[in-house]
Amino acid sequence: MxxxxxxxxxxxxxIATGAAGAVGVAAAIWPLIHQMNPDASVLALASTDVDLxxxxxxxxxxxxxxxxxxxxxxxxxxxxxxxxxVPLNQLPDPQxxxxxxxxxxxxxxxxxxxCTHLGCVPLGxxxxxxxxxxxxxxxxxxxxxxxxxxxxPLNLLVPPYEFxxxxxxxxx
Length: 172
What we know:
Layout: H1 9-34, H2 40-44, E1 48-51, E2 60-65, E3 68-74, H3 77-85, E4 108-112, E5 123-126, E6 131-134, E7 139-141, E8 147-149, E9 161-165, E10 168-171
Antiparallel strand pairs: 1-10, 2-3, 3-4, 5-6, 6-7, 7-8, 9-10
């Protein structure tokens, strides 16, 4: 092969070796990057539809969304009135009950069922306020899922959800 003033066989070998090395590094790094993608089972639960028809008034059911428990409470008029009667200045994390439900659907409360203290799962219809009680560390939540007593710093979270119909919701 004839060499020109600027190129030699050695230059070609450097470029070929560098290109092969770059392809090898990319092939080695790809599995490490790909393993950070969410599991297919989590992606499958990006949204969950729930039929509200079988839930009786006063009943709380638990469904799974993105690997977490979600509480759906069909609240009675008494539970709603009790939640709305609490002065906001008595709450560690003040939030009105109306901000935790969809307008016109006050009887349906949807909450992520994970205690905001250390991630335990609270028990429904228990505690000092007949809402939720976390037996692990003693957090008490009211019928609106708001923290009332205990070490939890925040109210139970309200996940993104919408009413698909009068008797069905989509979480996520």
